[in-house]
Design a protein that fits this description.
The protein is an all-alpha fold. It is built from five helices and no strands. About 75% of the residues lie in helices and about 0% in strands. The protein is rod-shaped.
């Protein structure tokens, strides 16, 4: 029977699998709530061998989804930062009225994102 086989931690295989499944399910829940994949990655490393394949697959899916969301957020933040820096540069270098107006219009979209830009707009 399945329960007669011992796992690495000495528990019957079915009990070890159930325990590993529960640990991974909890790690998935925490990862989803915190948007931090690291505890789930750690839990996967620890429980992958004993957990059931459907739970391991679900945990990998959650891990990958969170990593992709973080990657997309980082990319969006980098693009936004580049746009803010461009607006700041336009404000600092504009010396004709039309160029100043265009730079201010561009910079106003980013009010509150960078103190240096806010100071430049205020001056």
């Amino acid at each position: 029977a399945d329960g007669a086989l011992a796992s690495e931690d000495g528990l019957p295989r079915s009990a070890a699998a159930a325990s590993a499944d529960e640990a991974l399910k909890l790690a998935m829940q925490l990862a989803n709530e915190s948007a931090d994949p690291q505890p789930l990655i750690t839990s996967l490393d620890k429980h992958r061998a004993a957990a059931s394949e459907p739970v391991v697959s679900a945990a990998r899916l959650v891990r990958d989804r969170i990593k992709e969301k973080r990657k997309q957020a980082s990319l969006k933040q980098r693009k936004s930062h580049a746009s803010v820096m461009q607006s700041l540069g336009q404000l600092q270098s504009a010396n004709e009225v039309s160029a100043i107006r265009a730079a201010v219009a561009s910079a106003e979209r980013h009010i509150g994102t960078m103190p240096a830009l806010d100071l430049e707009l205020a001056s």
